[in-house]
Structure prediction request, 613 residues.
Amino acid sequence: MIEDDEAPGRVRTVADKLSAVSPLALKRRIAVLEEEVQECRQTSLRVAELTDLVTELLVPLVRGDNAEALEILDRYHQSL
Amino acid sequence: MPGSGRYGAPMTVSRVRVDGEGVRARSRDEAILDVSFDGRRIWSFWLHRDGGRSGLDHLVPWPETLTDFLDGRARITVQEHGVDDVLFDDAVTFGESDEPIAIVNGRGRPIALDKYFRRVETFEGRSDEAVRPLLDSIQEVIDVVAECGIEAFLTYGTLLGAVRDQKLIGHDSDADLGYVSRHSDPADVVVESFALQRALRARGYQVVRYSGAAIKVDVVESDGAVRGLDLFGGFLRDGQLHLLGEIRTPFEREWIFPLTTAVLEGRSFPVPADPDRLLVATYGEAWRTPDPAFHFETPTTTSRRLNGWFRGTRVGRSTWDRLYLSGAFGRRRHVAEAARWVVDSEPDMASFVDLGCGRGREASYVAEQGVPVLALDQSRFYFRHQARAWEPGTGPDFRTFNMLEDRHVAVAAVRGALLPGPRILFARHLADATSAAGRRALWRTAKSMLSDGDGRFYLFFMSVEGDDGYGVDNQVGELSREVVEEELKAAGARITYCEERPASPAKGASTLCRMVAEWPGHPERDPAVRTRS
Prediction:
């Protein structure tokens, strides 16, 4: 892993540096980065679902004169 | 007579026969076969994917959507898709009648099956009168969407037909609408699409979600026939138009807005300001020339983006839908032994949750014991017969549940948690039928339902695949006991029972695992199951 090459205390040799930019190493690095980008994209749907849950389900649930819900809300708020 | 397929290669499909059961054929390789009734293509299927083994052949049973018509005679031809050679051509008689078979809908219009084996009326040969209900539907959906502040326009094949010939394209059966969101963040686009779905539902439409930004709106036409309108979400971001299903292309806002109009079958509909730009992005520069064989070539960079942002909630769904629609899958005369075992093991159970209930036979069985039952699966279609068998307000509470959607998990978890304890969760061939992401969601669901510790989670899965075909028959894959143990422990569960046994006495039988798990915090009890050896 390239991260290891950059660990403090390790002396990087010329060979290390060259191998880090070799086509194979770069190809592997790109594959890893692509996976990481895809992971980030996949949070979109999750964020949307959670937003929807809060705005369309939780908010209407606690709306109105619901003492217990307000108490839970207070408790949650204080815990932030 | 041996024929030859495309490129002169020897044809691999042989021994094609057609009878009341279905279509039989032999082929080492997968093949797509078209079945025509009296010269009209009605149904296409994949021989291996859609068929079951029958000796050396594959038998593809007639889909449920077609069997209603199969009483009478017809000249049936079977051809490999895209190949001229005829593999089967003969008069076939079905059932008792000797009348010619007419595959038509309630209005007497010819229908065919789409790729999901649903009955569809294609536009081919339809009169102006016949397309009017569809045009009404398009306008209706555009109007509802407009109430949400979104300007929808014709897109894909429907836009192409309107701009090129002012007509619907003959081989299409659906209409496509699109819109460009005012948002640029995919998460906002999804939230907006959820709102749109709600608005349409509130107006009485059935809506199926394809992805985070694309839905299908079922519009009931005047004679009761259902027509699906696809509504594709889009947005502009970084100078690119992203439009579900498959477009990402450099685009200017001015090429969309303000919308203009085009005539389709004599009626005026909204289209992008510069339809040519969108058609070039969709069909290439040659869009003015008809090409029925055209298919989208989506660049990887586009599909990766759209998949990452919007998709992943319907993995394997079309296969399951097709299975439940097309055959005897999951139809059993007897209740699965696993359900009887659970009922016997849990004399004090106060409620029962069937996760992945399929046709719902086991859920009904438990409900018959007088226990409140929540039965969950991804489509109403799967359990429709069992659901109908009960008087309203009695029997299992059948609900849809897609484990790959967080909202479904949240709602199911609350419904389950509200049931009286001890609540017994039952997941038979669910963990081994889903993905790793699906399993994570399943553990999360079970944990939430049992968060007070008052109940148990019964799991049944195939832990070793033998050569008895059990995996194929039940549409499950091998899932090792160790993996499940590890994942459940990581999810905070304690496994209280585990047993592996062969699926049958036959040699080479697959191994089935039954496991019981609990989450901590439950009151001390001495469940019957623990005393079993």
